[in-house]
Amino acid sequence: MDIQDILKPENLVYQKTKLLTDTPMHYCPGCSHGVVHKILAELIDEMGIQERSIGVAPVGCAVFAYNYIDIDWQEAAHGRAPAVATGISRVNPDAFVFTYQGDGDLASIGAAEIMHACNRGENILVVFINNGIYGMTGGQMAPTTLEGMVTATTPYGRNTDLNGYPMRITNLIAQLPGTSYVTRQAVHTAGGVRKCKRALKKAIQNVLDKKGTSFVEVVSTCNSGWKMSPVASNKWMEENMIPYYPLGDMKDSVKGEHSEN
């Protein structure tokens, strides 16, 4: 049998969704961004909402998301994605609107925007990539950087006396009455990818059902910023990040109710 007969699309175990473009991804090997992009593209395709989907990407490693997922996109200033998404969602109430943000963007310069958007219960999905560091701009300390973690601005490790404590901002978000679904996931294993996809599907459906804000944190690696190999980064994340940022649902309720697990 000729190899081209074997490689027919119907014989392949994995087929790339049509919503992922052919643009080569610029992310570092081992980065979690590409996996989350793939999940989002698959879900938007499978749920048949490509024409209704509008993503908002601010500054950071995720800013070029518009190159990879074939939907409408709007760029936002650093930290301002929830404010921009609020305007888009209110003008287009039947659209699926989501932000895609890193920890420096969302938990630092954008802390006010995310807290107030979630408190208002804006009908959007927030995808929060938490790798504990500023990945694009040189590896500086972020609000989520762990205690003792070495970064470009904490060369001797994060010192809580000087720098404060790592921020579990997703835990804070879960307390707000405007949020309907708040969860923390990871994509470093096949099982983790499946769980994250289920969580994102639920979050997207909540937006379509106008249940308020859904918030999905993805605990991630940054092997370039952490100065580790992809394999070592995954191991370090499992041993350090996930114990401090445990995975699982924190809230699953309709808008206006508190139902944290």
From TrEMBL:
Gene Ontology molecular function: oxidoreductase activity, acting on the aldehyde or oxo group of donors, iron-sulfur protein as acceptor; thiamine pyrophosphate binding
Species of the source: Maribellus luteus
Name of this protein: 2-oxoglutarate oxidoreductase
GO biological process: cellular respiration; small molecule metabolic process
Domain Thiamine pyrophosphate enzyme TPP-binding positions: 67-218
Keywords tagged on the record: Oxidoreductase
Signal peptide (residue range): none
Taxonomic path: Bacteria, Pseudomonadati, Bacteroidota, Bacteroidia, Marinilabiliales
Short name of any one Pfam family annotated for the protein: TPP_enzyme_C
